[in-house]
Design brief:
This protein is an alpha+beta fold. 31% of the residues lie in helices and 15% in strands. The strands form two sheets. Strands 1-4 form a two-stranded antiparallel ribbon.
Length: 52
């Protein structure tokens, strides 16, 4: 999936919400904590990971 950034970065949970992959920030944190999210093919467990 592609997402166009308007700033320097976006935190992972915020990106999930902005891309309509989750309904809320809390749900975003939960899916990351459960190990259901990969970034560039790698498992990402940091909820506030900065995506550039």
């Amino acid at each position: 999936m592609e997402f166009k950034l308007t700033g320097e970065y976006i935190e992972l949970c915020s990106l999930l919400k902005a891309a309509n992959l989750v309904m809320s920030g809390g749900e975003g944190k939960e899916v990351v904590a459960q190990g259901l999210v990969t970034v560039d093919g790698e498992l990402e467990l940091r909820k506030r990971c900065k995506i550039r």
